[in-house]
Amino acid sequence: xxxxxxxxxxxxxxxxxxxxxxxxxxxxxxxxxxxxxxxxxxxxxxxxxxxxxxxxxxxxxxxxxxxxxxxxxxxxxxxxxxxxxxxxxxxxxxxxxxxxxxxxxxxxxxxxxxxxxxxxxxxxxxxxxxxxxxxxxxxxxxxxxxxxxxxxxxxxxx
Length: 158
Known about the structure:
By secondary structure, the chain is an all-alpha fold. The protein contains six helices and no strands. The protein has helices at residues 2-10, 25-32, 42-50, 57-92, 100-124, 132-153. The termini are far apart.
């Protein structure tokens, strides 16, 4: 037990959960200014700079994951809105045209599989090293941002 305590006292980064200094505002401002895909990663980068230990693997992973989660929430909202709109439109008009809501769902499912495979490949390039985690999260963040922006700019059903 004493050996464990001695090791913990020598750790430069607290063993407890790291408190991240995260704010999504830089991304929101960038999106409002029309920055598009260049907005992805801005809040994570600011978080890494502002958080003590933010440049460590744990700090980078935490900051990247916070921003990834925000983009994921936005993506889910945009997807649900589009899907509901397309499904309602389909119910109003009987058509022999392909079902757009179904096509949107199929596209999104295929995109998830693509994103996961692409990000697994990004992580694999680190050969099992500690950079694999942040690399995978960064990939998920950017791919999710790209997909959210794609769906947001579509005039689905028009």
